[in-house]
Amino acid sequence: MAILELRDLSLTLGGRRILDNLTADFWEGHVHAVVGPNGAGKSTLASTIMGLGGYRDYSGDIIFEGQSLKDLSIDERARLGVTLAWQEPARFEGISVRDFLRATAKDKSEQSVRDVLDAVGMKPDEYLSRAVDKTLSGGERKKIELASILAMRPKFVMLDEPDSGIDVASLQRIFDALAAFKNIGSTVIMITHSLTVLKHAEHAFLMCCGKIVEKGNIDKMQVFFEQNCIPCDHKNRPDVMAR
Fold it and tell me: Band of the pLDDT at 219, cuts 50, 70, 90?
């Protein structure tokens, strides 16, 4: 069953059509990937689903659990269970990791906070009293943000480049977090350029020039990574441009 439905979704920014009549269903409880070249509209799609400022003047519709999100604010969408983890996590000067995790956690107990840090491979005794600020590396902040989203127990979470800023040794912890989301019943969309990340999805959509041009299992999508293209009739396809 689809938890999120895109129906003829289009968005124009600065006179350019960024999203172009997208129609897609995201199945409940699955890990989906959205892949495609730079400028395809992947991050714009996530921002539009979340309802960020500047991304709300779209045509078509976004339907979450049977309800249109068209007139709902970011806060209202979040209360329904829709969450977005940015590629570059925010810093919150002065707030401790413990307070940051408790701020939106469903279970605010000390044990719950420790559990979500453990789930992303961070030792609670080393991090709970630290501040979420510039003293943390980008990879540490990424994992703390994932821990905070796990603590929310969202119905639907979008992860923009979840491996960005993560060293190879820590990457498995990101995949552990993906498994944890699935275990609590969350539906996940990963926006990625990484074949390694793609392999942890169950289903994928390929975007190009604001359109979804292919969908299917991850084996089918590996062609994109091998060739940086799939057969199509777009004017920017390399063999068309060479004519």
Answer: confident
Residue bearing the bigger pLDDT, 237 or 101: 101
Distance CA 178, CA 163 (A): 11
Q: Which two tokens stand for residue 173?
A: 């912890």
* Residues 6 or more apart in contact with residue 166 via CB below 8 angstroms: 139, 142, 143, 174
| pTM of the shown model | 0.84
- What are the b/e assignments for 65-74, b being 16+ CB within 10 Å? beeebeebee
Q: Provide the b/e sequence for 161-189 (b: ≥16 CB within 10 Å).
A: bbbbbbeeebbebbeebbebbbeeebbbb
